[in-house]
Amino acid sequence: MKKTLPEVVAEILIHNGAVIEETDDGCLEFLATETLADKLNLPDYGKLRFGYNDSSGDAISATYDSELFKAIAGLLKGKGEFSVASFESSCPDTEKLLKNLNDTIALNNATFRMEKSETRKISYLLCYFKYTAISDEKREGIAQVLINELNLSAVPFEDALPELEAVGEGSAGIERHDLKRVFRSSYSAGVEMVKESLKDFVRSLERRLNRDIRRVHEYYETLKNEARIAIEKKAASAKDRAAREEEIDRQLKKKMNAIETECKWKVQDLKTKYSLNIRIEPLSIIRIETRSPVLWINIKRRLAARPFPVTYNPLIKRLDDLPCELCFNPKKPYFICDDKLHIICSACFKTCPDCGKQYCGACHTNGCPKCDKNKS
Ligand SMILES: [Zn+2]
Ligand SMILES: [Zn+2]
Ligand SMILES: [Zn+2]
C-alpha cells in the first residue's frame, strides 16, 4: 500500500523533531521545535494543507510545489546531515533463514557456499525521494528506498514506519559502504522503482507513440503515391521513351528522398514528445541502526571467489535480496561477471545486439567491449 503525501510529510517532520496530529479535514496540525521552524520558515505551531484548491482557513500549503516542500528538501543540504535512529529488532534463528537462502540468492552462472553467520550491528538508509516524471503529461509523487549500507541491497519501502528511537549521532564502528556510494545506489534504485510504479503510464505513452507513428507513416505513404502519379502524368507528354523513363526515375528519387527525410523528422519529434524524463531529488533520509543476522557466503564463478554478506532485514522481516550492482532494483535471477564478480540482475546482464556477446554493464559502462574494440 502506497503512502499518501500527508503521511510522508508527517513521517519526515516527526523525524526532524515535530509533533504531528491529523485533523478531520485532512490537514496536519504541527508543533515544531524552534530549530525546525526556523529551517522550514514555519511558525512553531500551525496547520498544513495538501489539496490545491481547498481553502482550509489559514493552513499552510504543503503540496509538491509549495515553499514548504522545497524547504523540507533543504533540510538535507549538508548530505551528511540526517537523523539517525535505532530499531529494536527481534531476530529469527539462523536455521530458519538458511532454508530461504537458495531462493534469495538465485545465481544463474555461479555457485555459492555458506561460510559463517553472525549477529551484528548493521545500518540502513531510508531515503524519501520526490519524483517528477515529465512526458506529454507530468506526474509527481514520492518514492521511498530502503537501502542496506553493508551490501547495498535496496527495496521500495511502503510500509508504515515502525517505532524508532532517535540516537543522535549514531554508533561508531558499523561496517558500511562510503556514504556517496550508498546515495548513488539509492538514487539509481529510486529511478528504477519510479519507472516501475509508472508502468501503466509508460505503457500508455508507448501505445500513443506507436499509434501516432503509424499515422505519420500512413500519411507519408499517401503523399508518396500522389507524388508518383503526378510525376508520371507530367512526363507522359515527352516523346522519347528512354528519356521519359530516365526523367521519371530522377524526379521520383528526389521526391521520395525528400518525403522520407521529412517522415523521419516527424517520427523523431513524436519520440521526443512521448519520451519519459524522470527526475528525483532527495527529501529526507533516516539512518536506521539495528542488530541483525548476517550470513557470509562465498560466491564462486569459475576459478574466482568473492565473499558477500547476505543480511536479514528486520524492517521488512525477510532476507534482503542480493543487490544488482548496476541498477540496484534487481530482477532475479542474477549473473556473476567474470572479471570483477559483480552481481548483476537479469535485466542488466546485457546481450549486445550487434555481436551477441553477453557482458557486464557494471564493468563496461560504455556498452559492448567487443564492438567497442572493433570501432577504435
Ligand atoms: Zn539490474
Ligand atoms: Zn563486472
Ligand atoms: Zn558487441
Give a quick precis of the structure.
The chain has helices at residues 5-15, 34-40, 67-74, 94-99, 101-105, 179-197, 199-235, 241-274, 369-375; strands spanning 19-22, 28-31, 45-49, 60-61, 83-87, 111-134, 138-148, 154-156, 165-166, 277-301, 304-313, 318-319, 334-336, 343-345, 350-351, 358-359. By secondary structure, it is α+β, with helices and mostly antiparallel strands.
Comma- or semicolon-separated keywords:
36% helix; alpha+beta; binds zinc ion; four-stranded mixed sheet
Describe this structure in words.
With 376 residues, the chain is of the alpha+beta class. Among the domains are: 1-75; 201-275. 36% of the residues lie in helices and 28% in strands. The chain has 9 helices and 16 strands. The protein has helices spanning 5-15, 34-40, 67-74, 94-99, 101-105, 179-197, 199-235, 241-274, 369-375, and strands at residues 19-22, 28-31, 45-49, 60-61, 83-87, 111-134, 138-148, 154-156, 165-166, 277-301, 304-313, 318-319, 334-336, 343-345, 350-351, 358-359. The strands form 4 sheets. Strands 5, 6, 7, 8, 9, 10, 11 and 12 form an 8-stranded mixed β-sheet that branches. Strand 11 and strand 12 form a beta hairpin. Helix 7 (199-235) runs antiparallel to helix 8. The mean pLDDT is 90.
